[in-house]
Write a structure and sequence with these properties.
Order of helices and strands: HHHHHEEHEHEEHEEEHEHH
Oligomer: single chain
Bound molecules: 3,4-dihydroxyphenylalanine
Largest sheet: 7 strands, mixed
């Protein structure tokens, strides 16, 4: 038979062990493990119960009570230790996750509109302010809309002005947004005032030409439209895009679909017209082609040229972007090199 005092020794040695061990517990996970090792069924406190069979019957109740006391004490002991650890861990976490709201915010790089899109939007903004609607044509056109209806029949020498990508003898990748003029005039009675931006394609590739580029066509058809209207509108456009001090000059030119035809120059916005390397010492920079819609083109679309007249212009968007941002190779607009794009960001 086991002596109760000896057993009490064992009980108190378990208590001592717990207290001693607790000094090494540094986080709630360790407390949890230690608690398990004492308080689980097979834990050290549970194991004390196996001495019960050696205890004299009269002392069994006393022994059981002593073990239970130890158990209750251990539960409380581990409970408060756990709480202490958790509080400490929470404070450490607060400390780690502390945010200094007085710190300057990190700059996050955000995307931006491509310069060609920026210029395109800017032009749409300027012209829609003058009452223009947008018409988007299609990039594949048949020969009639791209050429013939624009007074450029087959074998017309002016077809050589544009190196065309033929998809078939009938269909082309449009070489100019001017084809949109025909679609609009076929479907709409004057007064007409449209702007048609879009991609165009030519077999052409050098520092200032790319096989794909963007144009913006303008067309106004009404009674009594003259070159004066054209110059007035273009003046507004160049002042908005290139600066208030700039103005335009019209030079005679040739396009089959306009008569008369003009090239439009803008006074050099680098030197103010005095002459510099940017404008090749002429004081002027060519920005677009325009003219009074040829009578034949109006007739082709069923519009009476004795009643109505029209003006048209075609702007090369990349050209405007290159002038505006001082880019000398059109490829830079298509290579998406962030070092270049970041420099020409307006925003
Ligand atoms: N379509 C011409 C080109 O691509 C540009 C142009 C010139 C358009 C005169 C016009 C215009 O509407 O009137 O070179």
């Amino acid at each position: 038979m086991a002596n109760l005092d000896e057993l009490r020794e064992k009980i108190s040695s378990v208590r001592d062990a717990i207290q001693k061990e607790s000094a090494n517990l540094t986080d709630s996970r360790m407390v949890y493990e230690a608690r398990k090792s004492y308080l689980d069924k097979s834990g050290r406190i549970g194991q004390l119960m196996k001495y019960m069979k050696d205890v004299e019957p009269a002392q069994k109740a006393e022994f059981g009570k002593n073990v239970n006391e130890l158990k209750t004490w251990a539960m409380e002991y581990f409970g408060s230790l756990d709480e202490k650890m958790r509080t400490r861990e929470l404070l450490a976490r607060y400390d780690m996750e502390k945010i200094d709201i007085t710190m300057p915010a990190l700059r996050r790089p955000v995307g931006n509109l491509h310069p060609v899109t920026q210029v395109r939007n800017e032009l749409i903004d300027v012209f829609s302010g003058m009452g223009f609607d947008i018409y988007e044509g299609s990039e594949v056109e048949n020969d009639y809309y791209n050429f013939t209806a624009l007074n450029t029949p087959k074998d017309h020498p002016a077809r050589d002005m544009q190196d065309t990508f033929y998809l078939s003898p009938e269909f082309v990748l449009r070489t100019q947004t001017s084809s949109a003029q025909i679609h609009v005039m076929e479907n709409q009675e004057p007064p007409i005032k449209i702007l048609s931006p879009g991609k165009v394609f030519r077999s052409d590739d050098d520092a200032t030409h790319s096989p794909m580029f963007t144009q913006m066509e303008g067309l106004v058809v009404d009674k009594g439209i003259t070159l004066g209207d054209l110059q007035g509108m273009l003046d507004v456009f160049v002042k908005r895009v290139f600066g208030e001090e700039t103005h335009t000059r019209l030079r005679p030119s040739f396009f089959p679909f306009t008569e008369p035809s003009v090239e439009v120059d803008v006074s050099c916005f680098e030197c103010g017209g005095a002459g510099c390397s940017f404008c090749k010492h002429t004081g002027w920079i060519e920005v677009l082609g325009a003219g009074i819609v040829n009578r034949k083109v109006l007739e082709n679309c069923g519009i009476d040229p004795d009643v109505y007249s029209g003006l048209a212009f075609g702007i090369g968007i990349e050209r405007v972007a290159m002038l505006k941002y001082g880019i000398n190779n059109i490829k830079q607009l298509f290579e998406s090199d962030l070092r270049v794009l970041n420099q020409i960001n307006d925003n």
